Amino acid sequence: MDLSQQQLNDAVEEDILTIQQANTLWQYLQNHPNQKSNTAMSARFDFTHVLYYFGGFIAIGAMTLFMELGWEAFGGIGIVSLSCFYGLIGLGLTHYFKNRELAIPAGICATFVVALTPLTIYGLQQALGIWPDDAVYRDYHRYIKWHWLYMELGTLIVGGIIAWKYKYPFLMMPIAITLWYLTMDLTAMLNGGDYSWELRKIVSLYTGLLMIALAFWIDIRSRYKADYAFWIYLFGILAFWGALTSMNSDSEWSKFFYFCINMAMIVSGAMLVRRVFVVFGAIGSFIYIEHLASSIFKDSWLFPISLTIIGLGIIFLGILWQKHEQSISSKARKILPQSLKELLESRASRSC
C-alpha cells in the first residue's frame, strides 16, 4: 500500500500521530532505499508522469505512426545509419536515467530503442536490395503484408533482450503490439494472401484470447514484482473485444451471449483488479442494452423503468458486497491454487 503525506496529515488530525512523528515518518519513507523502486512499480499517475509519457509517445510516434515519405530520400543505408544513431542516443539516455533511479524515463527511452527496430530492419532490407515490393515503411502500421514478418520477428528479439536486461514494464508495450501484428501477417501469409475483414476479425479474436492468457501467466510469474502484464492485457483485450464487437449477427441469442461475455469480463476485472476488463466489459454491456432499447423494446415505457430498478438493485448489491467482501473473498480464495491466491492478494495490496 502506498502511503501519502495527506494520510499522515489525517492521522495527525485524528491524534494518532504527532506532527513531529508524521514529519519524521514521511522523511524516513522518502529516503528509504526501497522507496524509489516501489514508486516505479506503483499505480500512481501524477502530472510528472503525464509529461514523461506524453513526451515518450511523441518521440516513439515520430519513428513509427507518424513516419512519412521524407525518410525514403535517405535510402536504405541512410535509414539504417540514422536509426542506429537514434538508438545509441536512446540507450545512452536509458543508462543515464537508470543510474539516477528515474525508472519511468529510463523505461520510455528503452522502449524508444525497441520501437526503432522495425525501421532499422526495413532500411537494412532496402540497402541489401531484398525488399520485395514498392511498399514503404509508413504502411507497416496500416496494411497486412507477409514481408513485415522480418521486422516483427526482429522487434520481438530486440524487445525481449532489452526487456530482459532492463526489466521496465513499459517495454512490454511494443512487444504486445508486435505480437498482434505478427499473427495478422502470419495468418494472411499462410492463407494465401487473404486480407479480408472476416479473417482479420477471427484472427484478432483468438490472438486476443492468447494474449490475455499470456498476460495472466506473466501476472502470476511477476506477482511480487512490477506490473509486466498490463500492456499485454490491454492489447489482448483490444484485439479480443474489438473483434467480438465488430462481428455481425442476426441472432438474439448471439447478442445475449456477447452481453454475457462482457459481464464475465467485468467480474474477471474485479477479481484480478484489472480495470481494463471492467471498462471494456461495461462498454460492451451498454452496447447490448442500447440494442435492447432501440430494437427489442423500442417505444416501450416499461423498459426504462425496469432498467432503473435493475441499476438500483446493482447498487444495493454493491453495498452488500462491500459489507461482506472480506468474508466472501477469504472463503473463495481457500479453494484457489496457491499461485493464484498470492496473485490476487498482491493485486489487492497494490490497489490500496
Walk me through the structure.
- This protein is mostly helical.
- It has a domain of 44 residues.
- The chain has 14 helices and no strands.
- The longest helix is centred in the last third of the chain and has 32 residues.
- It is globular and about 65 Å long.
- It starts with a helix and ends with a helix.
Structure summary, number of beta strands: 0
Rg (C-alpha, Å): 24 Å
Helicity, as a percent range:
over 70%
* Main β sheet profile: none
The ordered string of helix (H) and strand (E) elements is HHHHHHHHHHHHHH
The low-confidence runs, each spanning 5 or more residues with pLDDT under 50, are: 33-43
Shape: globular
Structural class: mainly alpha
Strand fraction: under 5%
Distance between the termini: 5 Å
Mean pLDDT: 81
Helical stretch tally: 14
